[in-house]
Amino acid sequence: MTDDLQHWQVRCQQLAAQEMDQDAAHDTSHLQRVWGNAQQLLQHYPQADALVVLAACYLHDVVNLPKSHPDRAQASRMAAERATALLLAQGFPAEKLEPVAHAIAAHSFSARITPATLEAQIVQDADRLDALGPVGLARMFHIGGQLGRTLAHATDPLATERTLDDQQFTLDHIAAKLLQLPPTMQTAAGRQEAERRAQWVADFRQAFVQQWNATPTAQAQG
After folding, report:
1. Theoretical Cys-Cys bridge with 189: which of 44, 85, 103, 205, CB 3.0 to 4.6 Å?
2. pTM of the entire structure?
């Protein structure tokens, strides 16, 4: 990592820690993982501006409204505005402020903003990757608990005879959203990693349901 990137990583980490109203699903560890995901993607796209990606990764949640908040869809736009002001005050390169703001605004699923730059595509993919895999599931159940959702439907956890409802049943979020993420990834490298992580999530869902329904395993039956 270049000296310039290291400098701004420290500054952006400090700004995020000062600004964020942290919870266990959206804390500085989440930001570090998103940047780690982005660094993996940047290896495939060296033409992308790493400084823009770094700043957007660390500041994308400086405004983070609860999922149940009526203005949730506006949170990423609000975060982009706040991040721009913070970076401007720190002397961040002026020509990179708008690309950072766009990447932050476009990262959110609920904002429905199409990422128009490679940097924004990488940031969106990097953030969505943190929703997949073991840590992603831990974050999912944490948020479900915060919102008072039931772990799973008592008798039909796979929603074979009902409509998925992840507003009421946390497990439903896997089929309703998480397993739908891989095709939405903006980069080929992001899609490949998302597919790998989604398979782990799908396997977990099956194992969860087997235990939820108290289904005897083959070994126990034997």
Report:
1. 44
2. 0.88
